[in-house]
Amino acid sequence: MTPVLDATWTALLYLVAAVCFILALKGLSSPKHARRGNLVGAFGALVALVTVFLSSRLGNIPWILAAIAVGAAIAAPVARRVQMTQMPQLVALFNGVGGGAAALVALLELPHADDAWVRLAIVFTLLVGAVSFAGSAVTFAKLQELMTTRPIAFPGLPTLMGAVLLAAVVAAGFVVVLPLSAGSTVVAVVLLALGLVAGVLLVLPVGGADVPIVISLLNAFTGLAVAASGLVLGNVLLVVAGTLVGASGTILTRLMAAAMGRSVSHIMFGAFRGGSTAGSTAVSERPVRSSTAEDVAILLGYAQKVIIVPGYGLAVAQGQHTAAELAQALEARGTEVEFAIHPVAGRMPGHMNVLLAEANVPYESLKEMAEVNGDFRQADVALVVGANDVVNPAAKSTPGSPIYGMPILEVADAKQVVFLKRSMRPGFAGIENELLYEPQTTLLFGDAKDSLTKVLTAVKAL
Length: 462
Description:
Low-confidence stretches: none
Distance between the termini: 72 Å
Oligomer: single chain
Largest sheet: 6 strands, parallel
Number of strands: 6
Mean pLDDT: 86
Strand order of the largest sheet: 3-2-1-4-5-6
Strand content: 5-15%
C-alpha cells in the first residue's frame, strides 16, 4: 500500500491523537466527564489507526483487516454484555492482551534490529509484556473465581522467583550483546517464556482485595511495554500513549494502596510474610440485632439525614437502581441523602461511582471518603449496602489485623447503623466486623436488591 500522507501530516495527526489521549485521561478523573473522556480517547485511537494505514507502506492488508474484524467481533459483544460486577475482570483481560501484543511485536522485530539500543528496548518489551500478559491472566482467573482468590504460596517461592528473574536478565543480556542470528531468536523466545512464568509467580501470592490493585500495577506494566515497543517501531505516538498509561497506572496503584493504608511492596509480597488481605471465610455465630424491612423503613423515613454506603454486594445484586429510587423517596419526604464512596469500594476505583451514575444518582450526591467522613456524626442513619471491610473499625483499633491502617468510612459515628447483608460471612479481609455487634447497629438479612425493594415499598407506605 502506497503512503497517502507525508511526514508533516502524519506528525500532525499523531499530535491530534496524543492530545485526545491526554484529554481522555483528564475526563476520566471525574465521573461527570468520564463518558466524554472515553469517547475522546476512542476518537484519538481511531485517528491513530487511520493515520497508520495512510502513512505507512503496509503489506498483507487483507490479513490486517481480517485480524481487526475478528478482534472487533469478539471485543464488542463482550464489552456490551459484561456486568458492572465483572468490569475488573474485563479490564484485566484487555490489559493482558495489550501486554501480550507488545511482546509479540517486539519478538517479530528482533531479526531487523541492528542497533543494540533497539535490542535493549526489545528485551524490555518482551519481559514486561509477558509479565503483564501472564499476571493479568491469573488476576482474571482469580476475580472470575476460576481459581481461589486466596494467596497461593509455597516453600521456595521467593527463591524460584529470584531464579526466574536472574535467568531472564541473563537471557536479555545475550539478546542485546550477541550478533543477530537464529540463536538470538531462540534466546528471545526463552526470555518470553521466563516472563510468562514470572508473571504467574508474581500474582499467585496476591489475594483478596489486593487483586484489583495488582490489575492497576499490571496496567502500568503494559503501558511501559507499549512505550518501549514504540521505540522499537520508531512510532512516537506509541511512546506517548504507553507513557501515559504507564504513568496513570502507577499513580492509580499508589492511590489504591494508600486507600488501603499499605505499601505496594507489602501488597505484592505480603503473602510471603503472611500479610495478605485474604483471611478466614468462617461464618460468625455471635448474636446480632436483626430487623424487618418495615422497621428499617420507619427508621429511614423519619430521619433527617441518611448516608448510604454502597459496596460490592450492591453491585452483585444489581440493586443500584433500587437504591437510587429509595434515595429519591426519602428526599421526597424531606430527608437529606448522601452516598458515601470509599476509594476501594467494589472491585476497582470508580466502581461505585459508575454503578450509581448508571442509576442516575446525581453526581453531587456522591461523596468521597475525605468529604463525607465528617458528615456521619450528623447522620441519623447510615445504611450500609453490601460493604464490609471499608467500614470495619478494626482498621483503626486492631493492630495486626489484615486491614489495620486502612482508612475507612466512619460509619460508627452515625446515630443508627443499618447493615444490609446476605449472611454473616466476612468480607474479603476474612475478619469479623465488630460494628455488627454494636448496640446502635441493626442487620437486615437477604439479597441487597430484594431488601432494598422491601424497604422502598415500606417507605412509600408510611
